[in-house]
Design goal:
Number of helices of chain A: 10
Structural class of chain A: alpha/beta
Largest sheet of chain A: 5 strands, parallel
Distance between the termini of chain A: 39 Å
Strand content of chain A: 5-15%
Oligomer: homodimer
Radius of gyration of chain A: 20 Å
Order of helices and strands of chain A: EHEHEHEHEHHHHHH
Number of strands of chain A: 5
Chain lengths: ~220, ~220
DNA sequence: ACCTCTTTTACGGTTTCCCGTAAAGAAATG
DNA sequence: CATTTCTTTACGGGAAACCGTAAAAGAGGT
């Protein structure tokens, strides 16, 4: 079994149970960080000491705090960690269940498993760890397997996300047009933006911009 | 100390830690339900057997599921429980940190304590239980005490919420006007709605409707 | 170079939003 | 009952969104 595992999780109520679970599958060295920055430092320190971690189990969202942090989400943490130690195994353990985000975790960050916090997640987490250790094919947990099959979600690109983000900031189409021109994002004609927004409205069955933002906010896209 | 305590919490990763915490402060009978409906049944059963629960610790949000449930949130659960057993003590243990919602828990449901899931919440939970058992004055945990002092939040009423909800559904002002007329909500003139929305836009520093919905979505008001 | 298909941009008309002002109605005060 | 004050509603003009159509620009193929 893995020797050295790091847990990045802000909620103490959850990390307690995860630590317990790891002990039960006889993992010898278990460490825990409540902040992404701390987790990253521990990874670096372990590397430097030539005793690197085998596995990182990370949450996605961390509560903001009085503390100023450089890394503020599981995504950012994993990205940074993979740069420092590309061979580390990673599991995301989060309540997030939006297919769009989970997909991008596998595709963009190359995580090894995703376990959704739910009514029976601790056993699932144990199984996922075992599978990764055995280098077995990752079978996404039943709850989210449908999400990964959902091809249609591929079509929403980062361009759409920035567009939605700008909209949700209260910018007008003209504003966004000049903003995009300024940052070199194309297309940026206000007419094109309009067309693109229209595509999104059809896609999400929204009747106007307000509705569109409400829907995509719910989906966690913005 | 309390004898009989019920935990209503869907995430196994959290309930494990809570059960452990209760054991540590020597509570003898600890039960746990993953669904609001199950929790309510246990309360009723215990009442019927003349061995009622002393304390209910409940989450607010429960993941939807294949199961059809009558009660779908902590609020609904507590409301139902208090009707069946008015003298039961209640603690809400949730990640929710929107002052608006916490306030209404104390004011409308008469909960005995609110503990916010965070980086140091298990000790806080223990303290809260102790305080309630000793009938001490409830001191809201430091994190949220400022929220309760925030008077301005009193001004946002359920009227505003329904207005924002309708907006986020993509309805136009005219639509909302007739909807409100239909359900007897006043004021319902489209001009009044406009004025009210304007008040909200000033309050939340939103530059237009889209922005307003984005902000209030983030705050969890809608 | 020419044609074709696609993408991007432009334009015009209609609806809805946005914002100020003002009238009508309701409630409170003396 | 008259006056004041607050709330609700009405109206009008300008800005932005909404929606269809069409021109301009690019990309790819022959």
């Amino acid at each position: 079994m893995f020797h050295k595992v790091l847990i990045a999780e802000d909620l103490d109520s959850i990390s307690i149970a995860v630590v317990q679970a790891l002990e039960e599958i006889s993992i010898l060295e278990i460490n825990h960080a409540k902040y992404c920055d701390d987790a990253f430092l521990k990874i670096k320190k372990a590397l430097h000491d030539n005793q690197p971690y085998d596995l990182l189990i990370s949450d996605l969202s961390f509560k903001p705090d009085h503390r100023e942090n450089r890394l503020n989400s599981g995504e950012e943490l994993i990205e940074a960690v993979k740069k420092a130690q590309p061979d580390i195994k990673t599991i995301v353990f989060s309540i997030e269940d939006k297919s769009f985000r989970i997909k991008s975790l596998f595709n963009n960050l190359g995580i090894n498993a995703y376990v959704s916090k739910g009514r029976d997640s601790i056993p699932e987490l144990k199984k996922a760890i075992q599978r990764i250790y055995n280098n077995e094919e990752i079978k996404p947990s039943a709850e989210i397997s449908h999400a990964l099959r959902d091809k249609s979600l591929f079509e929403i690109e980062s361009y759409d996300i920035s567009l939605l983000k700008s909209l949700s900031k209260g910018l007008t189409l003209e504003d966004i047009s000049s903003e995009f021109k300024h940052s070199g994002i194309i297309p940026n004609g206000s007419s094109s933006l309009e067309k693109r927004i229209n595509r999104l409205k059809i896609y999400f069955k929204a009747s106007n911009n307000v509705h569109l933002i409400a829907i995509t906010k719910d989906l966690g896209l913005v």
